[in-house]
Amino acid sequence: MSRPGDAQRGSGRAVAGARSTGAGFGRVLVTVYGVLAFAALGRSSYELATKFTEAPVAYSLSALAALVYVVATVALALGAAPVWRRVAWAAVGVEAVGVLAVGSASLVSRDVFGESTVWSLYGQGYGYVPLVLPFVGLWWLWRTRGPAAHGPRGSDPADGSEETTA
Amino acid sequence: MLLPLLILLIALCVALGGWAAWFVVKDRAVILNQLWGGAVVEGVLIAQAITAAIRGATGGGPSDPLLFWGYMATALVILPVAAAWAFAERTKWSSVVLLVAALTVAFLDFRLWQIWTGA
């Protein structure tokens, strides 16, 4: 169960135990999230500004998706702090549920929401990136979690004072 | 939008992406020269924006200006942000970030062309 990096844990980092979600592979994850956030935000602003009344449900869903991507990007980038890590879990979780729910609904009835959204057909319009990304995000959050989340070793991650002298 | 600038920009993005991909294989972090490469791409992108603005002002602009300039704004922002974000990471993952950014800009430029020509 020992992973590279275990040795440096709790040695005076911002959060004892938990690794930053924005470093290493996480830097790529945040980049892809950022691009998707920009894409979704641009699309949503355009829809809201030009044709919101045509399909309010679909365009509201797109706006919600855009907002969640922005929150997920920021939270993953700042993931060294416990509060941002929790926000990231929530945002990425909402995405996973959203893309599966909206994707399945759009599969049953093509125009259930009146118009297509970022999450329609499991994000087909975006190369299925919206489908893959939340699960990669969940895996990454789980992988970089602190020792308190998986057993007796280590102290309370919110404390961390005992380990700094080790 | 001018076709030669489009071809030049996509070629430059592919070259920059290839350079970054080579660094991923070699397990190396982004170097300053690659950021200069990114600056060249950004320069061509700005040239595209200027020519598009001039064409638009003289009546030959895109059929959907809002959509076009939305995409243009996104394309202009990506490389500077990605470069800063990548350069702070001193592992091969920074090279992956640059690769993703270069491919994204190439794709966005292709979309810009589609919107411009009304395809």
Automatic annotation (TrEMBL), chain B:
Transmembrane segments: 36-54, 66-87, 93-113
Keywords of this entry: Membrane, Transmembrane, Transmembrane helix
Taxonomy, superkingdom: Bacteria
Stated name of the protein: Integral membrane protein
Species, as recorded: Myceligenerans salitolerans
